[in-house]
Amino acid sequence: MKIFITRRIPDAGIKLLKAAGYSVDIYKEDRVIPRKELLKRVTGCDAILSLLTDKIDDGVLKAAGPKLKVIANYAVGFDNIDLSAAKKRGVIVTNTPAPEVSETVAEHAIALIFALAHRIVEADHITRNNKYHGWDPNLLLGTDVIGKTVGVIGTGRIGANLIRRLVDGFDIRILYSDVQPNKELEKKYHATYVPLEKLLAQSDFVSLHVPLVPATHHLINAKRLQLMKKTAYLINTARGPVIDSHALVQALKAKRIAGAGLDVFEGEPQFALKKQDSAYLQQAWNVILTPHTASATIEARQAMSKLAADNIIAVLSEKPALTPAR
Q: Is the pLDDT of residue 297 over 90?
């Protein structure tokens, strides 16, 4: 059986696939595979191990042919895959919500919260550039995180891990919003379920943990940014288009909110923004930008590799997928 991997990934999963006796073909160049090359390389495959940067639509499925049984997406999200087209062709789609990934992304969200609250990036810049001229009681005043209110939008694995860590470690009041209440979180961490608008109005930090689906595209828009406190910070480790980036820039410029920590943004790897908006985000000291690296730890990325391979092996062995995309 033939497996095509669209870009080299950590070796845990590759070793598993080879040990299972499959023929493993990997696109060797360290970049997103060109469309023409993708269509060529998937032909006759039994499985495709794709990345979130690969657009897997009906054209790719058609090029692969009738042997294709499973697409294992090396990501927690799967908005890059046409699930409807896959279902019509009888192709199973899986993702990689490994426990290590949930923990790591929650850690990254917390890192952004504290870096914003304590102005870490700005302080580092000032110190490195010899702009620190001695201790000053008013120099780079930030805000405490302890005792504050954090609003969590989306309480799946990552959102729940964020809540657990904040409550256990920092005496945080948790508000959360989701498609339905999570009674376990309410019982264990005294989290309070509120409508999205109330969460935005009352939170000191708002952290996004929702998938990108039509209902969450631009979930945070100009109207909802207006609801936030002027002292509040917005954190996004989910998907870029969950926030209307232009509206965010306008809110930051007008000091409608205090700042933002963005691991993802519209149009990655470039900002899908007007030139002046892009320049603002890149220069603003109250904005921290990381290049979609919230899950970038050795442990998390190896776990993702292994889970993607385990899903392929399960499906090709005519067993249920471990983590089917839903």
A: yes
